[in-house]
Design a protein that fits this description.
Length: about 170
């Protein structure tokens, strides 16, 4: 059985994972407007990953006999039209999500829920990967600067990203 505080923290995080899906869907649309189809693909994979993260927690709460309380999803705001600034926002968002996963781990430790700690470990590792991934895109965008040809070449690169359904937990 899930402790109440743990259950609430999971429900809040499910909402944040769905918000992440929304945010990346909004960003995907920006890149569609720019006709950068490789970036569109990158965000499409990201959207699917976020949905998998949300469903992973959703299933876990149910498996533990907890209650799902879905909340309103905040409207996503993409703060810029420039690829590099959009990725700065992605990195900032992923760092925020990492801090939230750490908060869930704090709660799990506080209520001595070892099963939840072991489950959340997967999310923590995933966040390390997410931040590294975004950091690499950002570093390349910084190198590219205003070079449109280089941006188009990088766009081709991002078109190769594929979604692999994660095995969570
Ligand atoms: Fe769910 O990892 Fe990104 O937000």
């Amino acid at each position: 059985m899930l402790n109440n505080k743990m259950e609430q923290a999971f429900n809040e995080q499910i909402n944040k994972e769905f918000f992440s899906e929304f945010l990346y869907l909004a960003m995907k649309a920006k890149f569609s407007e720019m006709n950068l189809q490789g970036f569109v693909n990158w965000f499409d994979v990201q959207v699917q990953e976020e949905r998998a993260h949300a469903f992973g927690m959703y299933d876990y709460v149910i498996e533990r006999g907890g209650k799902i309380e879905l909340q309103d999803i905040e409207k996503p705001i993409v703060k810029s039209e420039k690829p590099i600034e959009i990725f700065e926002q992605v990195l900032e968002h992923e760092q925020y999500v990492t801090s939230r996963i750490n908060y869930l781990l704090d709660v799990a430790e506080e209520v001595k829920d070892r099963a939840a700690i072991s489950f959340l470990d997967w999310y923590l590792k995933e966040q390390v990967e997410e931040e590294a991934n975004v950091g690499r895109v950002l570093a390349t965008l910084k190198l590219i600067g205003d070079d449109k040809n280089a941006l188009l070449l990088f766009d081709k690169d991002l078109a190769t990203r594929v979604f692999n359904a994660p095995v969570i937990g």
